[in-house]
Amino acid sequence: MTTRQATFEGIPAGEHLPSSGAPVSPAVTAKTWLAVSGATLGAFMAVLNIQIVNASLADIQGGIGAGLDDGGWISTSYLIAEIVVIPLSGWLAQVFSVRIYLLVNAFLFLVFSAACAMAQDLPQMIALRAVQGFTGGVLIPMAFTLIITLLPKAKQPIGLAMFAISATFAPAIGPTIGGYLTENFGWQYVFYVNVAPGAVMIAMLYVSLEAKPVNLSLLREGDWSGIITMTIGLAALQTVLEEGNKDDWFGSPFIVRLAVIAAVALTLFLVIELTTNKPLLNLRILLRRNFGFGVLANFLLGVALYGSVYILPVYLSRIQGYNSEQIGMVLAWTGLPQLLLIPLVPHLMKRIDPRLIIGIGFALFAASNFMNIYMTNDYAADQLFWPNVVRAIGQALCFAPLSAVATSGIEQENAGSASALFNMMRNLGGAIGIAALQTLLTKREQFHSNLLSQQVTMFEQATRARLDQLTQYFISHGVIDRVDAIHRAYVAIAKIIQKQAFILGFSDTFYLLGVSQLIALGAALMLTRPDRLDGGGAH
Q1: Identical fold at 1-219 and 285-441+509-532?
Q2: Residue 473 burial (C-beta neighbours within 10 Å; 0-12, 13-18, 19+)
Q3: Percent of the chain surpassing pLDDT 70
Q4: Domain chopping of the chain, boundaries
Q5: Dihedral in degrees, nearest 10, Cα atoms 238, 250, 303, 320
Q6: Going by CATH, does the domain composed of 1-219 fall within 1.20.1250.20?
Q7: Alpha carbons 364 and 398: distance in angstroms, whole number
Q8: Helix, strand, coil in percent for the chain, rounding step 5
Q9: Which residue, 113, 119, 116, is CA-closest to 136?
Q10: Cα end-to-end span (Å), the chain
Q11: What is the assigned CATH class of domain 285-441+509-532?
Q12: In terms of Cα–Cα distance, which of 378, 368, 375, 380 is closest to 317?
């Protein structure tokens, strides 16, 4: 009988192996599960906050007197801070210890959530949202890191299924909660809603995380050139993606300058990370087959995950005239089935090759988008029900197995880099996906509008008949001047054409999302089966 020390922080040492050498899954203490649960609750709140606020953005802008264009910075400031802090979190947790780093940021996240509800004007809100994003962004990678460091391989699928609730369920259910709170209580409650679960999260982390000494000497040894170039590059890139479509992309000198800054800074960051002795992120782990293809698939998952959460509310609001609460009820069916399915995924992973589960998940996610490529004027809640359910099933199946397979060979010392890269690339995929969808929708609406306008001419009998019908309609409804009635008829036809062009444009956006998931499926097919995942020994 031999004894082997467990290498996971918080796992009892001295696990015994039978003489045959088959590994026995280490026992996981209740304290460890409490730490993982508290961290995943924090990640859920951080991701949920983005979608809740986005669903209520119009009301928030009205409440603080912000214009439509400038109000977009309420979301942009949060996202910039979040994407910058995610890759920093692994290193900062070593400097200040996991316990102190998580507890301080969890507390500050709650403080600034409540402060956002009290903001009086746009500058205040932007500043508060930026700090909230910085503290909330910490919670996402740290939850992932705790799962792959505190839990043994046999239990990681359970932890990753818990994390999947924050990664895929939270974005789907966010508009539902945001719409309900805004319509029934007011926009301030989209920030106050964090307080109660946040207090529970802090209590769970306080009693479960082990105290470790602070190591401030690491600040002197920090990869500061990498940190500075990464911060500048990611902040500039995120701003370009968030503001580019509104500012006509490279037709704007502001966007051009930021794009150049992002390209130069991120190129320097890559060079620094690959040449320095103590890099902020170990980018070489991307060359490992499972992690590299896993990150690519996760990036594309982010494109469709956040892209669909963006495009569906825009469609329902602009075409169907839904309010935020009605939109939330439609999107609920992309979230609720996941609550039932995600807890079952770890059990499926014990019986089925996880790569097969991932493949089925991406195939269903792709199919759900392709189900929406033939939209009509009557395409609303009833027609979206089954595509949303199929999407929910696909998302529930792909995330946890993908995370497990991608990180299966990651060593303890590379856990921080793996967590940062995996989570940052999913968020970056979402930002790029939304920017691409905004631009595609604009361009395809113009394309379809031109085609439809060419078919609606005075040489067509149907067009002349429709103009006469509309003219008579306006005259019968109080328009005395016939010339005015004819003008209104032309305007009405133009609006009908534009609406139909937008519907066709929305169909094209779903086609793009479906294609992105087919590419993700291709990346998933390149994964190899990990040596140990179910705790049953080497395969």
Answers
A1: yes
A2: middle
A3: 91
A4: 1-219, 223-279, 285-441+509-532, 446-504
A5: 110
A6: yes
A7: 9
A8: 75, 0, 20
A9: 113
A10: 22
A11: mainly alpha
A12: 380
Contact 102, 443 (CB under 8 A): no
Pairwise CA distance, residues 178 & 324, whole Å: 8
- Pairing mode of beta strands 15-17, 2-4: antiparallel
> Under a CB-based contact definition with an 8 Å cutoff, are residues 313 and 365 in contact?
no
Say whether 339 sits in a helix, a strand or coil: helix
531 C-beta neighbours (distance < 10 Å), count: 11
Confidence of residue 14 (pLDDT cuts 50, 70, 90): very low
From the list 268, 223, 242, 261, the residue with the least C-alpha distance to 87 is 223
Q: Which amino acid is at 219?
A: L
Backbone angles phi, psi at 88, to 5 degrees: -85, -20
Continuous H helices in 319-414: 324-331, 336-341, 345-351, 354-370, 381-406
User: Dihedral angle at the C-alpha atoms of 170, 175, 177, 183, nearest 10 degrees?
Assistant: 170
Question: What's the whole-number mean pLDDT along residues 228-235?
Answer: 94
Burial code (b: 16+ CB inside 10 Å, e: under 16) for 85-106 equals: bbbbbbbbbbbbbbbbbbbebb
The first and second tokens of residue 451, run together, are: 């085609």
**Count of residues for the chain?**
539
Query: Under a CB-based contact definition with an 8 Å cutoff, are residues 294 and 406 in contact?
Result: yes
Under the banding of pLDDT at 50, 70 and 90, the label for residue 530 is confident
- pLDDT, average across residues 201-225: 91
Phi, psi (5° rounding) for residue 2?
A: -115, 155
Averaged over 24-47, what is the pLDDT?
A: 87
CB 41 within 8 A of CB 135: no
Question: In this structure, which long-range contacts are made by residues 183-190, counting pairs with CB atoms below 8 Å and at least 24 apart in sequence?
Answer: 183/323, 183/324, 183/325, 184/325, 186/59, 187/56, 187/59, 187/60, 187/63, 188/63, 188/117, 188/118, 189/117, 190/52, 190/53, 190/55, 190/56, 190/60
- 8 A C-beta contact, residue 167 and residue 51: no
Q: DSSP secondary structure string, 6-64?
A: --STTSPS-EEE-TT-PPPPPP--HHHHHHHHHHHHHHHHHHHHHHHHHHTHHHHHHHH
User: Would you tell me the crossing angle of helices 98-117 and 195-208 to the nearest 10 degrees?
Assistant: 170
> What are 205's two structure tokens?
């982390």
Residues 6 or more apart whose Cβ sits within 8 Å of residue 282 = 273, 414, 417
